[in-house]
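Sequence in, structure out. Go.
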Amino acid sequence: MQSTSIVPETTRPFLTWQRIIDWAKEHYRCRSFEKDERIPARPGLLYLVQRGSVRLVGSTQLTTSVGVTNRPLDEAFLGFVGAGQPFELVAQSPFSLGAYAHAEDTNVIWMYWNDLDNWPHFRREVLDAFRYQHQRKLLWLSTLGQRRTIDRLLGFLTLLIEEYGEYYTSENGNSEFQGYCLPWPLTHSQIGSAIGSTRVTVTRLMGKLRQQGLIYTQDDNLICLPIAHPSARLTDQTHSN
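Output:
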C-alpha cells in the first residue's frame, strides 16, 4: 500500500508544541496507551493527543422511578480525536463519556485549562480546534437525521474519511484502486452504535455499498472511498480550522 496523509501540516509553531511536550514530561502529565486501553480521563481537564488516535464513546444510565440506577447501556461510538488535536470530557447525569486509545502506542498529554496561560498562542489554537470539532459534529447530526440507514451509513463514513482519510493507491501502481482510506480499522458494531443500527444491518449494508462501488476495503479491513465517488473528493480546505 502506498499512502500519504491528506491532513495539512499544522500551523502550530514547532517550538511551542515541543515546549508543551517537554513541560508534560517534566510534570508527569503524559502517558502512552495500548490499543483499546481506556484512558482515565476526567471532566475539567484538557487532553491533547500527541501521537496515535483516541476513540470517544458515550453511555447512558437509566434511573428507575424509585431512584435506583441501572447498569449503563452499551457504549456508543462518538468519533475520533487525531494526533495534534484536543479533547475534553463533560459529565452530565445520566450521560457519561469515555475515551480509549484506538491505535497502538497512543500518547496523551493532559493539563488544567489555566496551564494554557503559559502559551497564549497555543490557547487560541486549542479554542479554534474545538470550534472546528463543533462544526463537524453539526454535520454528523445532519447525517444521523437521514431516514434511510444506508444513507446514514454512507454519510457517516464519508465524514470520517474526509477528516482522517489517507490517500491510497494499489501496490501494483496500475491505478487499479485510488481513493482515501481510514488509517485505523472500525468494527461494524462500532459503526452501528454511531448511526443507531445493529452490527448485522451494518454488515449487510456495507456489502451493498461495496457492490455499488461506493466503498472499498483494503488490507486490514480499512474502509476506503474511491476517488470516483464525489464524496471522496477531499481538499485541504476540509481539514483547515
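Check: Residues 225 and 232 are 6 Å apart (CA to CA). Residues 1-12, 230-241 have pLDDT under 50 and may be disordered.
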